[in-house]
Amino acid sequence: MGPPGVGKGTQAERIIEELNIIHLSTGEILRDEIKNQSDVGIKAKQCMSDGKLVPDDVLLDIVRNRISKKDCNHGYLLDGFPRTLPQAEGLKVIMHDIGHKLDAAVSLTADENELIKRLVIRGKDSGRSDDTPEVIRKRQQIYWKQTAPLIDHYKKDGLLKEVDGLGNIPEITKRIMKALI
Ligand code: AMP
Question: How many domains does one find in the chain?
């Protein structure tokens, strides 16, 4: 977890290398669905370009299908999921059904204005249509309203690892690894 721009994707790529596990980014999966013009992609497209969340049932179907595949048996990192309390509850049910266990929930923290600056730069470099200042603000607001409550949720479960997300990339990876092991 972490507000848009905190570096979830960048850190996820590094952590999966360290732990030799699979990286599952729901944002990436949705962007692929849009590219392929699938039914899910068509449903998700408008929400994503408005900076809003895609409905929980769509996400829970995607995640159930993906983590039930054999290649997930040796571990995976969910990047950008869950993002709401119903998604977290749904994940618990799915994992229970297929005999998986959540080991940890990492929350990356950072100053919001710094993140907006970073995202505007990313938008210019990557051409992601949801990295414009207006959509970024919307995504930040949604994070604080809908996703931040998960921090308390995972704290209560004893799974939360809070990590300072400001600093250089390798340093943050080290902090995350230290929190996980
Ligand atoms: P991300 O690449 O994680 O920043 O996700 C980009 C966009 O995909 C988000 O702004 C949402 O519109 C959508 N999305 C990704 N993951 C989720 C999720 N778990 N729940 C709802 N929408 C999601």
Answer: 1
Catalytic residue among 43, 117, 118, 122: 122
Q: What is the pLDDT of residues 8-66, one digit of tens each?
A: 999 999 999 999 999 999 999 999 999 999 999 999 999 999 989 999 999 999 999 99
Structural domain includes residue 38: yes
What pTM was estimated for this model as a whole?
0.92
Residue 31 among the catalytic residues: no
- Closest to 145 measured CA to CA, from 53, 7, 36: 53
Q: What is the CATH number of the domain that holds 25?
A: 3.40.50.300
Marked catalytic residue, from 8, 14, 31, 175: 8
Decide if 2 is inside a domain: no
Residue at 57 is within a domain: yes
Distance 80 CA to ligand 1 centre (A): 6
